[in-house]
């Protein structure tokens, strides 16, 4: 196997700030687990790119895989930076960047070209380009720069779904760019198996697992819960929103904090460990996922892998790996969302029982299958370079 480098800059920056891992972070950790035993860590710092020796790489990978615990990685980082100044020797090696990090900068691309590495980028989505209305100001242009730079300098590209590869192929065609060698490698659910603990909420409840941001459509669910409270009275189920606050969330948090109707019905859990999250899911009537756009949608795969029914937006990517198991609904069809929630909350509801029967046939994507695709791409690139 050709030498492998893993850019850990984004992951290290987040964990040193004590941020909980996102879906992108979990993908990056999976790459460390797979390639770590034969890889070296790369850190971008003050305009330079430092390649750690194996000893420092192993120590840093172990700290990252422990989700930033225990202790501080600074001694390892200092040693890695010093050694990284002295010996790069990376010509011809594959460099993985699994989090879009740094790609908005032309300087980053120039640095990769100077060192003659063979970059392999994970493209998670093109949402800021295709759905800019759900993203932060300026993100459309930044992400277009990221994708443009990735396409121009990559030896290979890994997409997390066929839906993402389709969007990338269409954008490259419209932009007059030639797509490099690419593969689709579905992501695997990361939540560990767990036994049911004590019930965290009395009575029936639903879980919405997501960062709070406009694209995820929290507002629709909160408005729905207000309507159900008026119509169903004490029979209304609970809603548990699990996720960190992202951006443009003021309308959501205003309702959560100031609505007298919602306050007793909706629980916001901003910090949640894996075991607690699994317990919330396992007691839930269903996962609700009304997102407007997704590159993959890890919470859907995680819920199904734990035998939890899903009610989700009707997006092609969900049908790609979940097939016909979830209930699919237009993200703006409030009436249909309401009728499904009512059915899934009722003891006599038939739709939930039907989905539980379908769930018996769910086969979750695996990291073994993912990396079989990635390793196949690397073999293809190595043969083309020979």
What report would you give on this structure?
The protein contains 16 helices and 13 strands. The chain folds into two domains: 204 residues, Rossmann fold, CATH 3.40.50; 155 residues, Rossmann fold (3-Layer(aba) Sandwich), CATH 3.40.50.2000. The longest helix is centred in the C-terminal third of the chain and has 19 residues. Helix 10 links the parallel strand 9 and strand 10. The two termini are 13 Å apart. With 386 residues, the chain is an alpha/beta fold. Strands 3-2-1-4-5-6-7 form a seven-stranded mixed sheet, sandwiched between helices. Strands 8-9-10 form a three-stranded parallel sheet, covered by helices on one side. The model has no long low-confidence stretch (mean pLDDT 93).
Q: Could you list some keywords that capture this structure?
A:
3-stranded parallel sheet, globular, Rossmann fold, 46% helix, 386 residues, 7-stranded mixed sheet, alpha/beta, 16 helices
Return the structural class.
alpha/beta
Q: Measured on Cα atoms, how large is the radius of gyration?
A: 22 Å
Please give the alpha-carbon distance between the first and last residues: 13 Å
Enumerate the strands of the largest sheet in spatial order, edge to edge or round the barrel. 3-2-1-4-5-6-7
Whole-number total of structural domains: 2
Largest sheet: number of strands, sense, barrel closure: 7 strands, mixed
What is the string of SSEs from the N terminus onward? Answer: EHHEEHHEHEHHEHEEHEHEHEHEHEHHH
**Average pLDDT level:** 93
CATH-defined architecture of the largest domain: 3-Layer(aba) Sandwich
Uncertain segments are none
Number of helices: 16
Total beta strands: 13
């Amino acid at each position: 196997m050709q030498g492998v480098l893993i850019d850990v800059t984004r992951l290290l920056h987040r964990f040193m700030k004590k941020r909980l891992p996102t879906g992108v972070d979990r993908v990056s950790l999976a790459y460390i687990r797979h390639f770590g035993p034969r890889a070296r860590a790369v850190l971008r710092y003050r305009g330079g790119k430092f390649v750690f020796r194996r000893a420092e790489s192993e120590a840093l990978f172990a700290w990252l895989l422990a989700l930033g615990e225990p202790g501080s990685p600074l001694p390892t980082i200092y040693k890695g930076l010093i050694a990284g100044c002295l010996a790069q020797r990376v010509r011809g090696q594959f460099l993985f960047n699994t989090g879009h990090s740094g790609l908005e900068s032309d300087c980053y691309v120039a640095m990769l070209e100077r060192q003659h590495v063979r970059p392999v980028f994970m493209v998670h989505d093109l949402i800021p380009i295709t759905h800019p209305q759900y993203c932060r100001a300026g993100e459309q242009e930044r992400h277009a720069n990221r994708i443009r730079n990735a396409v121009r300098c990559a030896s290979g590209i890994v997409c997390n779904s066929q839906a993402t590869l389709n969007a990338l192929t269409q954008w490259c065609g419209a932009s007059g760019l030639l797509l490099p060698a690419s593969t689709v490698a579905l992501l695997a659910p990361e939540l560990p198996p767990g036994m049911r603990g004590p019930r965290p909420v009395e009575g029936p409840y639903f879980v919405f697992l997501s960062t709070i941001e406009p694209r995820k459509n929290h507002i629709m669910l909160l408005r729905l819960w207000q309507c159900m409270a008026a119509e169903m009275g004490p029979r209304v189920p609970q809603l548990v929103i699990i996720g960190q606050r992202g951006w443009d969330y003021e309308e959501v948090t205003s309702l959560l904090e100031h609505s007298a109707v919602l306050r007793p019905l909706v629980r916001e859990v901003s910090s949640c460990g894996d075991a607690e999250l699994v317990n919330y899911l396992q007691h839930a009537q269903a996962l609700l996922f009304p997102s407007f756009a997704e590159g993959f949608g890890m919470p859907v795969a995680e819920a199904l892998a734990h035998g939890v029914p899903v009610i989700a937006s009707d997006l092609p990517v969900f049908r790609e790996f979940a097939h016909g198991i979830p209930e699919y609904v237009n993200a703006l069809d409030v009436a249909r969302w309401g009728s499904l929630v009512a059915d899934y909350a009722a003891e006599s509801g038939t739709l939930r029982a039907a989905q539980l029967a379908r769930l018996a046939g769910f086969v979750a994507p695996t990291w073994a299958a993912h990396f079989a695709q990635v390793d196949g791409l690397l073999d293809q690139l190595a043969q083309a370079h020979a």
